[in-house]
Amino acid sequence: MKNVCKIIGCISCMLLMFFSCEKNESIHRDAKVILDKLLFSGYTGDMIRATVTYGSSDIKKLVITKWVNGEQVPGYEINVPVNSISDSYEFEQEIEVGDEEGTLIYTFSGYSVEDKLIDASDLAISVTLTDFGRLSKFDWKLTEQTTNGENTTEEAMLDNVYRLNSDLSWEYDWGDPAGAGFDVLNQYCAWKYIGTDLKADSIYLIKFGFLSTTPTIDKYEVLRLDDTNLWIQTFMDLSWLGDPYTEETPVVEKFVAIPKSPNFTPYRGEDPANYSWASCTPGNY
Predict the structure, then answer these.
(1) Residue-wise pLDDT tens digits, 223-282
(2) Terminal CA-to-CA distance of the chain, rounded, Å?
(3) Taking residues 6-20, what's their average pLDDT?
(4) Structure pTM?
(5) Which runs of consecutive H residues, i.e. helices, occur in the chain?
(6) Residue 149: Cβ within 10 Å count
(7) Is 242 left (phi over 0), alpha (psi -120 to 50) or beta?
(8) Picking from 22-31, 120-129, 252-261, which range would have the lowest pLDDT averaged per residue?
(9) How, if at all, do strands 88-94 and 61-68 pair?
(10) Which PROSITE patterns match (predicted)?
(11) Cα separation of 235 and 238, whole Å?
(12) Where are the domains of the chain?
């Protein structure tokens, strides 16, 4: 009886394997543009990699297009000539900030020598925006400053806008120069991201004081960061102001995310060429 059960079990496993193989093979049985994966998930900044195999010798050109929420992304098109030397193509593409805003699809279309479509396959991407991507995606406009828990926001501060670029350079539009105060005396250089792929712990802002070649590096703890708000905290030596201020007085600045705009003007009202007295190397601080 035990032997009979074993035989039945073996036959069941063999049938299961057979039908599983049949099911997997059916995915590509009639396909002429074959992808080694149809789904991919990753973070902004990650690299997408996929192998495209040509299932027909009639394919002479592969065209790759990009779609977000069913709309083709203008200006994105890769044309790959197909020859008899290789029957496959290795696709690589970095996930960009903005790709997370909808359903991301890469379409791989195979064409004949007469430019007739033979077959097409889609690669669907699930994208998660990282905090680094979020910081560089938006401009950040100051809305409030508190010092030692007290609101110290001045009207002239409310047009201050930071831009933290993906190449780690930092730009600052101080709005009306009449209210910029001593900010106009600095050369604004770079920023540094501290944290994991997903979550920012702190950021450093690097600038040079007037005619100084030694960078001033201010560390800010990230208290809150999402698609609408950035709250950062630093500690300043304000002991010279007397009680209750100390050498470690907390200063919190709150920013709101705004879309990047061509109206953003670093060193507004001044000549940016006059702000290059120090060598600035983003990514090296």
Answers:
(1) 999 999 999 999 999 999 999 999 999 999 999 999 999 999 999 999 999 999 999 999
(2) 75
(3) 38
(4) 0.80
(5) 2-28, 131-137
(6) 10
(7) left
(8) 22-31
(9) unpaired
(10) PROKAR_LIPOPROTEIN
(11) 9
(12) 30-129, 132-274
Q: How far apart are CA 259 and CA 228, in angstroms?
A: 10
Residue written as tokens 């507004």?
268
Task: Name the DSSP letter for residue 172.
Answer: E
83, exposed or middle or buried, with CB in 10 Å at 0-12, 13-18, 19+? exposed
Assigned CATH for 30-129: 2.60.40.10
Tokens of 98: 């903005």
In the chain, how long is the greatest CA-to-CA distance?
A: 96
The contacts of residue 132 (CB under 8 Å, 6+ apart) are 44, 45, 193, 195, 197, 200
Residue with tokens 């990650």: 46
On whether the CB atoms of residues 79 and 63 are closer than 8 A, the answer is: yes
How far apart CA 160 and CA 182 sit, in angstroms, is 13
Topology of domain 132-274, CATH: Lipocalin (2.40.128)
Q: Helix or strand or coil: residue 136?
A: helix
Distance of CA 56 to the CA centre of its chain: 37
